[in-house]
Amino acid sequence: GAATAARACPALITRGGATTALVAVCCADALAIYDLKNPEPVAVARGLHYAPLTDAAWAPDASCLVLASADGYLSFLRFDDGELGAVIPRAPPPPPDGPRAV
């Protein structure tokens, strides 16, 4: 069916030795998670809701994906470490410019 939402994962991952990104694609009755370097889905889930899926949101570390449906329900999909690939740690933000307290 037609996609109702597509959400990019904020974390970069490595799969098969390559750095890539994940995208969750919602359809009326299914969710597919794609690695942008592979045309086949990494994961597919069906039958999670009675009403069509309408939106999705990733946890910053790719450990969880929240799905919403037209009936107002939410589902939380949790992933084990490494299940979707190895998450590349983010570099800490640079310190702010300006005076510092001593």
Secondary-structure-derived class: mainly beta
Enumerate how many helices there are, as a single number: 0
Query: What do the pLDDT scores average to?
Result: 92
Radius of gyration: 17 Å
Sheet having the most strands = 4 strands, antiparallel
Distance between the termini: 60 Å
Beta content: over 45%
Report the strand count.
10
Strand order of the largest sheet: 1-4-5-6
Element order: H for helix, E for strand: EEEEEEEEEE
Keywords, please?
0% helix; mainly beta; three-stranded antiparallel beta sheet; 102 residues; four-stranded antiparallel beta sheet
Description of the structure:
The structure is a single chain. With 102 residues, the chain is mainly beta. It is built from no helices and ten strands. Strands 1-4-5-6 form a four-stranded antiparallel beta sheet, with no helix packed on it. Strands 3-2-10 form a three-stranded antiparallel beta sheet, with no helix packed on it. A hairpin with a 2-residue loop joins β2 and β3. The radius of gyration is 17 Å and the shape is globular. The model has no long low-confidence stretch (mean pLDDT 92).
